[in-house]
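Exercise 7b. Backbone tokens:
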């Protein structure tokens, strides 16, 4: 089967509970294998069955532990929330750029919580100029900005940006409401992500291999939890470290994706020109020069073979 989670989870759990042997075949493997079948109406089920019958390096699916299942759900939710946060920040900056570009340049809501708190209360230049520096710094402290220095830096940047722009853009009030809504949305997402990360960390610490995984350089709680979620919590399920990483990584390429436990199929080497192919080109040119009608595709095929290409040209026109 080409699914190891999602809609197939119930089916997998029932079959594994009844000691049935299930083989997981990644979608990319099915895609490459289907190229060997003729026709455009070939079913994936046929390709999957033939692949499972012929290959001997496929790993059977195993029952996922409770901790690994919990981490898979929680880490997937965290990824979704992080994507929603990025989208909301991009919309906020784009909206702010339309009517208050100086403030958009001065603040960075993606990394500064004080900037988000400020934008949740003040969004237009006139309001910032009216409140002033001292009152704005006090307001930020009262609404969750922890340090005085952070409040002063944000206040100085915001008021300076407001003093540099006196032009009122049409639709400013409506755009300000959108900025207010988006800033509150990002703050809520930050809080939900923080609570979720605390829950993930607690679940990850319950795994028996948590200390071993986090002892490796560069792996913290979140990455370790994603590792457990991707592998199912059983390091021996993939058989070898090379299979776990999806094959050895070549220099200059990206890291392998966790959880596939499959080695990428090797690419076929390019055909090398042979003496027979060169002779075929010479014979075709001689026949063409003598007035004998030959298919252009035959000439192209011989030339492509001489050039070392894997497939002939797609030209289908015939000489008359």
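Sequence design result:
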């Amino acid at each position: 089967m080409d699914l190891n989670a999602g809609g197939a989870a119930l089916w997998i759990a029932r079959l594994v509970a009844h000691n049935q042997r299930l083989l997981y075949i990644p979608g990319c493997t099915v895609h490459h294998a289907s190229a060997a079948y003729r026709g455009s109406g070939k079913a994936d089920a046929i390709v999957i069955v033939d692949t499972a019958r012929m290959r001997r390096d496929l790993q059977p699916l195993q029952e996922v532990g409770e901790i690994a299942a919990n981490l898979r759900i929680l880490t997937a939710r965290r990824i979704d929330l992080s994507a929603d946060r990025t989208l909301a920040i991009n919309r906020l900056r784009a909206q702010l750029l339309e009517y208050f570009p100086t403030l958009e340049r001065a603040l960075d809501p993606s990394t500064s919580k004080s900037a988000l708190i400020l934008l949740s209360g003040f969004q237009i230049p006139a309001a910032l100029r009216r409140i002033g520096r001292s009152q704005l710094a006090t307001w930020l402290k009262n609404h969750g900005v922890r340090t005085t220095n952070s409040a002063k830096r944000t206040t100085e940047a915001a008021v300076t940006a407001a003093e540099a722009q006196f032009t009122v853009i049409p639709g400013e009030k409506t755009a300000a409401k959108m900025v207010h809504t988006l800033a509150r949305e990002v703050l809520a997402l930050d809080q939900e992500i923080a609570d979720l990360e605390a829950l993930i960390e607690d679940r990850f610490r319950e795994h028996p291999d948590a200390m071993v995984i986090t002892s490796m350089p560069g792996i913290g709680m979140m990455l370790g939890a994603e590792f457990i979620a991707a592998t199912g919590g059983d390091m021996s399920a993939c058989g070898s470290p090379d299979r776990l990483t999806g094959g050895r990584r070549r220099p200059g390429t990206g890291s392998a994706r966790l959880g596939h436990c499959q080695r990428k199929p090797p690419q076929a080497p390019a055909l090398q020109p042979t003496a027979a192919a060169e002779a075929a080109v010479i014979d075709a040119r001689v026949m063409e020069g003598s007035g004998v009608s030959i298919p252009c595709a035959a000439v192209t095929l011989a030339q492509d073979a001489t050039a070392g290409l894997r497939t002939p040209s797609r030209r289908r026109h015939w000489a008359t």
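Instructor comment: Residues 247-266, 292-320 have pLDDT under 50 and may be disordered. Residues 249 and 255 are 7 Å apart (CA to CA).
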